[in-house]
Amino acid sequence: MQENQTKRNKLVEWIDYRLPIFSYTDHNVISYPTPKNLNWMWNFGSLAGIVLVIMIASGVFLAMNYQPNTAIAFQSVERIVRDVNYGWLLRYIHMNGASMFFVLVYIHMFRGLYYGSYKAPRELLWMIGVVIYVTMMATAFMGYVLPWGQMSFWGATVITNLFSAIPVIGTHIVNWIWGGFSVDLPTLNRFFVWHYLLPMILFMFVVVHLWALHVHKSNNPLGIDIKSKDDVMPFHPYYTIKDLVGLGVFMMVFLFFVFFYPNFFGEPDNYIPANPMVTPPHIVPEWYFLPFYAILRAVPDKLGGVIVMFSGVLILFVLPWLDTSKVRSATFRPIYKQLFWIFVLDCILLGIVGSKPPDYAFFGLIKGVLVGRAATIYYFFHFLVLMPLVGKLEKPKPLPNSINEEVIKACRAKED
C-alpha cells in the first residue's frame, strides 16, 4: 500500500514538474483562501458554472440530430423528442437548463448588488460578469429561434427588426443578420452556428471571470477586506461540501421541471410550425428577456426604445462608479437596503408588464404601457440618481473590525 502511494506521489511530482496542474489545482481550488463567513448566497456562482457545463454537453448531443433547415427544423426537433434514444431528456434538460441558468445568474447578480461585490477592487470582475450576461442573452435568443415554431420565427423577426431603427445603416445590418431580405434559411443557419459557438466564448469569459475573482479573492456578507489568516479558511473541504449540498437541492428543483413540468417556461405557440403568413396574437420573448422587453415597449419611438432597452443592460457596466458609498454591504446601509428591495420589485414588475399584451389593463384601470413607463423611469432613476445620492447622504452602521471577530460573535450568540 505504502509502495503504491510512493509510486503515485513520484508520478504526480514528475507530471507537476513538467506541467504544474496539480500545484495549480491545489493553489486555486483546494487550499484557496476563502472568507470564512460566506453564506448560501455564494453557492449560485458555482451552480451557474455547473449548469453551463450541462448546457454545453446536452447541446453537443442535440446538435448531432438537429437540422438547421427551415423545411425540416421543426420536424427534426420533434424527431429528437420522439425517436432519438433519450432525446426527450436531452431536449428538456437543455430547454429548462436555459431558464435555470438565468435564474442562478440573476440571483448571483442581485447578490452582488446587495453586498457591493462590484466595488473596488472588483470593478473589472463585475464588468466581465456583465459581458457574460450579455453573451448569455445572445446565446439564449439564438437558441430560442432554432425549434422554428411560431414564437421562434416571429420573435426573431421582431427582435432583429429593432436594428432597422439605427439611422442610415440599420436596414443593411438587418439584411446582414438575416442573410437576405427576410428571416429564412440563411438566418436559421447563422443562428445555429452562433448558438453553437457562443457557449465556447462564454466558457472562456467564465474562466477569465474566475481568474479575476482569484486576484482579490471573494467578497463576503460583511463587505470588509481580509485582514489576517484568521479571516479565511481553505476552499476544500469546507466550501466544496457546502456547494455539493447546494447542488443536490438545485438538481431536485431542476429535475422536477425536467420530468414533471418540462414546458412550464415555454410558450404553447412554439409547438406550432413557423408560418410567415400567420402572426401570433401576442408575441412574447422568453421570461428572462421580459423586463427589457417592457422597457422597449415603454418608449413610443422605435429608435428611442432600442436605445433605452440596450441602456438598461449597458448601465450595469458603469455601476461601480455610480455607487458613491465607501461601504460595500447593504447590511450596514439601512437606506440602500430598502432601495435595493424596491429595485428588485421594480424588475419583477417590468417582467410582469413585458409578459402582458400592450393593451392589457392592470386591475382593469391602469394601462400596462403606463405601468411599464413608470417602472422604466424608476429603473434608471435608481441607478442614475438614487445610488449616487444615497451613497453621499446615507450614514452607514459601524463596520466590524474583522471577519473572524464577527464569526466568533455569531457562534457565541448561537450557543447562548
TrEMBL record:
Membrane topology: Multi-pass membrane protein
Entry keyword Nucleus: no
Sequence positions that bind a ubiquinone: H214
Cofactor binding note from Swiss-Prot or TrEMBL: Binds 2 heme groups non-covalently.
Subunit structure: The main subunits of complex b-c1 are: cytochrome b, cytochrome c1 and the Rieske protein.
Similarity remark: Belongs to the cytochrome b family.
Protein's UniProt name: Cytochrome b
